[in-house]
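I am still getting used to backbone structure tokens and would like to learn alongside you. Would you supply a protein for us yourself, any chain you care to pick? Start from the sequence, derive the backbone structure tokens from it, and show both lines together. Go ahead whenever you are ready, and we will take it from there.
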Amino acid sequence: MSKTAIDTGILLETGTNELEILEFYIVETLEDGKEVKNYFGINVAKVMQVIETPNLEPPESAPHPSFMGTIPLRDLILPVLDLSVWLQLNMPKTERDIVIVTEFSKSVTGFLVSGVTEIHRVGWGEVIPPTSVISQTTDAIVGLVDKGDYFVQLLDLETILTQLQPKGAQSSFVAEAGITALVADDSATIRMMIEKSLKDANIEPIITNNGDEALRKIMKLKEKAESEGKDITEYVDLVVSDIEMPLMDGFSLTKNIKEDPVLQKLPVILYSSIITKELKHKGDSVGADLQITKPDLHTIPEEAFKLIKGRQA
């Protein structure tokens, strides 16, 4: 399956709070020997293609138990990770297994799974936030989609790579005091990274778990400012948001902010692992002031300060 056959996500109208997911499954052998299918989904826009299993044997010196080795693909050499190992599922290996080749966060990675089913268009409002039980197992599950007979678990592959890869670049930037940023991200790992980065830069963060929660929070701040006869910037100076989140994505959050006559002056920084030249127009269309990739999250404090100073000027 090639990228041209599956990359239909860029055709979705921006701001409709929708995305398209590639559904796949991992077979799990239970203790009684019974086999069950666990269904997962990832954003179609992150998928380059699907290939047959290369039948790799994990090297003894593997940096992580899920690392299976590398394979050549066109002019690339990409690592392959056994997703079942990461998710702690006892997956029996067969000749029918496949590798989903993904491209995001400036890297190309293969993920071994049992098989692919189909592509679904879903609204972020349909995505059920993960239960506390799932969150304790892994924070890579960002939500569930009810398909009637089964649930599709939406995977945040960035969280997996963030925990596998070495610590990224750091920033020594420190802003002037008195700046507050509202942050929206469904990943606990990324939230902690951004919160620390902002605090280290002397920027006070207000942390929310998704776009819906962020919008409700900023509307409450707006009401408070209006009731006290103050400007909204007395409570928040800008918004920093992930794009892919359950209940409401970053595009819809930005659209709501920029269509509000009081909030529209607040700068909005969107970030994602899939901000490419082809997809950047989506953020532009809803009024995002800046879009950056997740490997560049360390630049957020300085970029936020620039946007605020630009607005004040």
Notes: Residues 1-12 have pLDDT under 50 and may be disordered. The two ends are 50 Å apart (CA to CA).
